[in-house]
Amino acid sequence: MVRAKNVSKAQLFAVFAIVIALVAIACGSDDTSLVASGGEETQRIRMIESTQIFTEDDVKAIGWKAQKDFVLDYPGATTFKWGYLNQTEVGILIYDSAEDAKTLGVTAAADQTFRRESDNQARDGDFTDRISCRFAVGSRATKADTGFKSKSFYASYLEPNSDRPDDASQVRGCTTRYPTYNDYTVIGNVVFMCEGDESRLLEPSTNCEKVAEWLNPS
Fold it and tell me: Which of the 8 DSSP states describes residue 6?
């Protein structure tokens, strides 16, 4: 016969506290990938004057690796692509002139980095080109197919209206839709939209901070 052990109220409270903590983690309440350090401003916008007209090759020369064209329309842009620089995502918009970058480009960048004040998520609907779908504790859930098996990689990014079978919305529902890009920098005729360092969505982007220096080394 199994005898019931006496359990104190303190022990019951401790067990209850542990269960609550585990549930909170499972629900993603401790997602450090979304936390900005030090309570600082969470978006940094830089406008850098330059008379040089940059090309996609100029951007590739600093280490940016292009992936695909953006899905949405970008009026006036001659190049509209996303790729990787220093292992974090960077999107670029290239225009014929610096004036177009400062007007059309800034409008586009402001739209693509827009976050709702209530929860920092993207607005509803297909207005944000690159979405980071974050589940519990910032896990990444989607396999992005580059067309080459050796170059497939795991990421959390979605493409609006994608009909690919590896789209996260087809794998499981995306309940937390955050804009991938947070900071943006305009230099000359190019707009850089950057993911935060270490893929933390509200962290500063070293790429957006240093890109002007990299494009114009002294």
Answer: P
Six-digit token string for 44:
């940094």
In whole angstroms, give the CA distance from residue 190 to residue 130: 18
Tens of pLDDT, residues 159-215: 444 444 444 334 345 678 899 999 999 999 999 999 999 988 889 999 999 999 999
Total structural domains in the chain? 1
Phi/psi class of residue 149: alpha, beta or left (left: φ > 0; alpha: ψ in -120 to 50)?
alpha
Say which residue the tokens 């019951």 belong to: 12
List, for residues 60-102, the tens digit of each pLDDT value.
999 999 999 999 999 999 999 999 999 999 999 999 999 999 9
Range of the domain at 154: 33-215
* Residue located via tokens 């004040």: 117
Q: Name the helix (H) or strand (E) containing 100.
A: helix 98-100
Number of Cβ within 10 Å of residue 69's Cβ equals 12
Per the domain annotation, does 27 fall within a domain?
no
Report if residue 48 sits inside a domain: yes
Global pTM value: 0.72
Which residue is associated with the tokens 């008379």? 51
Whether residue 24 lies inside any domain: the answer is no
Centroid of chain to Cα 154: 14
